[in-house]
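Need a sequence for this fold. Nothing fancy.
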C-alpha cells in the first residue's frame, strides 16, 4: 500500500508524518518530483523537495515510486517553448538528471516515465510533446530512463484506464507495440481517480489481467474515490465498497503489485480544488480519523490472505417502492452492515434476479404492466456470502 505525500505537511505535521510513516510501504511525491519542481529553469535543478520525500521513505524503510519524468502538465514554459531538437535534448537531459540522481538509491524502485499521453477518446494527446516530436518521444523517454536507472521499473501512467474501455485499449495496444520494439516498458499505472456518482468502472480485474498477460506489472497509482460533499453514512459506505472493489481486483491479479492512494487524509487532497463540490475522497478524514474506506482497504487486504470471512452481511431493510411507471419502479432499502464490507445487493422476484446494485437502491425497468411483483433484496460481502433469510 502506497500513499502520495505533500511536502509541507510532511515537514510540519506530526500526525501526518506518523500515519505516512507507519501505514504505507511505498511513497509517491504528489508534486515534488515533477518537472516544475525539479528543473524550474533549464539545467538549474532543485532537489530539496524531492530529496525530502526520498529521505523520509528511507528513514521508514519504504519504497519510492518516482512521479513523473515527462508530462504535459506542471512543466515549465521554458520547456514548452523549445523547438523540436532542443526539446528532445532537454527531455533526455531531464530524465538523465532526475532518474540518474536516485539510480543508486535502493529506495527508488520505479518511475512514471510518461504520464497521460492519451486524450479521453484514446487518441494521442495533442500536447506540446506530441506536436513537436510526434509519438516517438514516448519510446525515446523510456530508453533514456533505462539508461539513467537500469534497475528501476519504468511505467506509463494514465487516468480513465481502470476498466476495459477505448482509452485503456489504446494504452494496451501502445504497450504491446512498444514492447514488441524492445522499448523498456515494465509497468502500467492505473491512476484511478474515481467518483461514486459515476459508478465503479467495468471489468477492472480483466483489464489488469490483460496488461499482466503482456508481461508488465500493474499498479493502482493514484487512487481516490470522491463524492459530492457533504459526506454522509450512505456515501461513505458506497465509497468503502469501491475501495474494497479496487483492492480485490488488484489482489486477484498476481502481477498487480500494489495500490497507492493519492494522499491519505481529506485534509490535503487535490479533489476539492479540482472538482468543485466534490471531496472526502480519501481514507482518513480531515482530523486524521479512519473512515469506513480505511476499514474497507484494511479488511480487503486481510481477506486476501488465508482467513476466510464466514460472517454474512445483516439482512437489508424492507424495500420501499417509489416512482412507479407502467414498466418500472425504484426500490430503496436500509443498508446492510458487515464485519468487512457490503459489496452490493441483488434484487429477486422469487428465484428470478431482477437486478444488482452497489448502493441501497435500484431502479427496475422492463417490468410487465398491470402485474404485481413481490421482491426481496439480498446483500453480498467480499466473500460472496449472501445475507440470511431473504425478506419478502
Ligand atoms: C495533482 C496534485 O495532486 C495537485 O497537488 C497538483 O496541483 C496537480 O496535480 N494526475 C497525476 C497527478 O498524474 O500528478 C496529479 O496530481 C493528479 C492527476
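Here you go.
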Amino acid at each position: 500500500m502506497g500513499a502520495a505525500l505533500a511536502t509541507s505537511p510532511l515537514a510540519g505535521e506530526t500526525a501526518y508524518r506518523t500515519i505516512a510513516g507507519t501505514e504505507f510501504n511505498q511513497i509517491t511525491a504528489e508534486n515534488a518530483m515533477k518537472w516544475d519542481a525539479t528543473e524550474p529553469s533549464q539545467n538549474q535543478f532543485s532537489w530539496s523537495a524531492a530529496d525530502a520525500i526520498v529521505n523520509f521513505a528511507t528513514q521508514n524503510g519504504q519504497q519510492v515510486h518516482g512521479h513523473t519524468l515527462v508530462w504535459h502538465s506542471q512543466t515549465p514554459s521554458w520547456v514548452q517553448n523549445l523547438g523540436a531538437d532542443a526539446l528532445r535534448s532537454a527531455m533526455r537531459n531531464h530524465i538523465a538528471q532526475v532518474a540518474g540522481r536516485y539510480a543508486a538509491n535502493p529506495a527508488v524502485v520505479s518511475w512514471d516515465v510518461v504520464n497521460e499521453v492519451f486524450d479521453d477518446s484514446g487518441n494521442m494527446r495533442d500536447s506540446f510533446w506530441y506536436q513537436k516530436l510526434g509519438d516517438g518521444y514516448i519510446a525515446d523517454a523510456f530508453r533514456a530512463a533505462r539508461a539513467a536507472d537500469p534497475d528501476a521499473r519504468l511505467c506509463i501512467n494514465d487516468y480513465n484506464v481502470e476498466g476495459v474501455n477505448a482509452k485503456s485499449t489504446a494504452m494496451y495496444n501502445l504497450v504491446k507495440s512498444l514492447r514488441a520494439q524492445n522499448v523498456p516498458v515494465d509497468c502500467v499505472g492505473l491512476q484511478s481517480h474515481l467518483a461514486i456518482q459515476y459508478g465503479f468502472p467495468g471489468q477492472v480485474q480483466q483489464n489488469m489481467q490483460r496488461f499482466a498477460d503482456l508481461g508488465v506489472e500493474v499498479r493502482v497509482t493514484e487512487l481516490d474515490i470522491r463524492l459530492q460533499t457533504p459526506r454522509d453514512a450512505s456515501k461513505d459506505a458506497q465509497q468503502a465498497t469501491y475501495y474494497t472493489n479496487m483492492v480485490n481486483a488488484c489482489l486477484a491479479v498476481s502481477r498487480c503489485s500494489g495500490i497507492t492512494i493519492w494522499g491519505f487524509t481529506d485534509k490535503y487532497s487535490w479533489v476539492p480544488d479540482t472538482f468543485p463540490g466534490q471531496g472526502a475522497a480519501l481514507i482518513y478524514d480531515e482530523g486524521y480519523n479512519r473512515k469506513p474506506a480505511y476499514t474497507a482497504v484494511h479488511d480487503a487486504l486481510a481477506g486476501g490472505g488465508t482467513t476466510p470471512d464466514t460472517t454474512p452481511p445483516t439482512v437489508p431493510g424492507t424495500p420501499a417502492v417509489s416512482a412507479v411507471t407502467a414498466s418500472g419502479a425504484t426500490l430503496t432499502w436500509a443498508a446492510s452492515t458487515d464485519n468487512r464490507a457490503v459489496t452490493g445487493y441483488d434484487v429477486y422476484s422469487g428465484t428470478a434476479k431482477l437486478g444488482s446494485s452497489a448502493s441501497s437502491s435500484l431502479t427496475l425497468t422492463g417490468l410487465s404492466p398491470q402485474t404485481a411483483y413481490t421482491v426481496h433484496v439480498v446483500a453480498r460481502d467480499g466473500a460472496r456470502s449472501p445475507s440470511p433469510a431473504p425478506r419478502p
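For context: Residues 30-31, 115, 191, 222, 270 surround XIL (CB under 6 Å).
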